[in-house]
Amino acid sequence: MTNLNVGDLAPEFELPADNGATIRLSDFRGKRVVLYFYPKDDTPGCTTQACGFRDAYPQIEEQNAVVIGVSPDSVASHQKFKTKFDLPFLLVADEQHSLAEAYGVWGEKSMYGKKYMGVTRSHFIIDENGYLIDVQGKISPADSVSGALKLLIK
């Protein structure tokens, strides 16, 4: 799991987003960022998590925060997922999983006895200056959304 801790400077990134732009974490200085990692577009748990953030987005925005979803899927996959579920936030394509590796959420997983490499569902909340204020690894889709909201609103 991640080797990052609250108080650490969040790893910078520069990756393509579903809107066609290349985004950087530093583009969001002055706002808090909920950076969440999920395994795959349009799968049950990932859809639950994304729709949870969608439904909470007005509350998140009220807290001077944005949400950015990250998975190894392509920009085209993200665009379909975003359109299908009317997601109001950016989805970043981390196809080489460099960002997942930087945040320590890329690793060996197991399903039905089969081992493979993939993303561990997790989220990180980054303050206005780029420092981590919350680190949650191996989190359930519902707990990710509720936990992020609790931290942002307090």
UniProtKB/TrEMBL annotation:
Keyword terms: Antioxidant, Disulfide bond, Oxidoreductase, Peroxidase, Redox-active center
UniProt keyword annotation of Disulfide bond present: yes
Repeat recorded as keyword: no
Domain of life of the source: Bacteria
Annotated ranges, domain Thioredoxin: 4-154
SUPFAM superfamilies per the UniProt record, alphabetical: Thioredoxin-like
Pfam families recorded: AhpC-TSA
Catalytic activity reported: a hydroperoxide + [thioredoxin]-dithiol = an alcohol + [thioredoxin]-disulfide + H2O
Gene3D superfamilies in the cross-refs: Glutaredoxin
Its EC number(s): 1.11.1.24
Subunit comment: Monomer.
Xref: NCBIfam families: PRK09437.1
Family: Belongs to the peroxiredoxin family. BCP/PrxQ subfamily.
Function of the protein: Thiol-specific peroxidase that catalyzes the reduction of hydrogen peroxide and organic hydroperoxides to water and alcohols, respectively. Plays a role in cell protection against oxidative stress by detoxifying peroxides and as sensor of hydrogen peroxide-mediated signaling events.
Protein name according to UniProt: thioredoxin-dependent peroxiredoxin
Organism expressing this protein natively: Herpetosiphon gulosus
Lineage: Bacteria, Bacillati, Chloroflexota, Chloroflexia, Herpetosiphonales
